[in-house]
UniProtKB/TrEMBL annotation:
Entries under Gene3D superfamilies matching the protein: Vaccinia Virus protein VP39 (3.40.50.150)
Transmembrane segments annotated in the record for this chain: none
Single GO biological process annotation from the record: methylation
SUPFAM superfamilies noted in UniProt: S-adenosyl-L-methionine-dependent methyltransferases
Keywords attached to this entry: Methyltransferase, Transferase
One Pfam assignment: Methyltransf_11
UniProt domain Methyltransferase type: residue ranges: 52-142
GO MF entry, a single one: methyltransferase activity
Official protein name in the record: Class I SAM-dependent methyltransferase
Organism per entry: Ornithinibacillus xuwenensis
CDD domains in UniProt: AdoMet_MTases
Amino acid sequence: MDTFNWSKEAKNQWDNRAMFWSERSKNMWDHGSRKDIIPFFNDFVETGNRVLDVGCGDGYGTYKLNELGYKAVGADLSVEMITKAKERLFDIPFFQADIGNLPFQSNSFDAILCINVLEWTEIPALALKELRRVLKPGGFLCTGILGPTAGPRNNGYRRVYGEKTISNSMMPWEFDKLAKEMDFVALNGFGVYKEGVKAEHYQQLPITLKQALTFMWVSIYQKLGE
């Protein structure tokens, strides 16, 4: 009998990684792989808007949104991550919640930030459907999907032996197709590349080959009106 519970296992694993993540999150958002995401987000989403940072981890990215003037709300599956977020940032609302069952009313956010989260869900289509539910018509969704060169994708390797993992290894172009099938329109995107990959290596390539070299592909979508 298969007793693997994806949500429970994901919660346990992210609880165990909370300290490791918290020690590195500030540098990732300020100087590392995530440093260009919020400036990119800010080009499309007006400050003052209500924004959900889903899969917020220890809340440092949520904090940066708040500092820019967004009405930021954080949510994460991990109890330990949310505990760290609340300890660090007392004036921002944080919720322990599963992306597949968010504790928010429909059409309640102007924008959603969702970085390296959907690749860790059991059924990404259902997770995206829930994000769409809480996003207002015309609202913006900013996603970061791990590319083929990203180290965290190794978490899914044991699937080749038939073992269960919490990593879905979705490719950026697969997510883009899914988003369009759920009535999101793609507005823009950019790649985050490892050191050693230069612009001249990819700038003339078609988008799928650009994505094939990435650590992460960041996109902004708009929800079509209902």
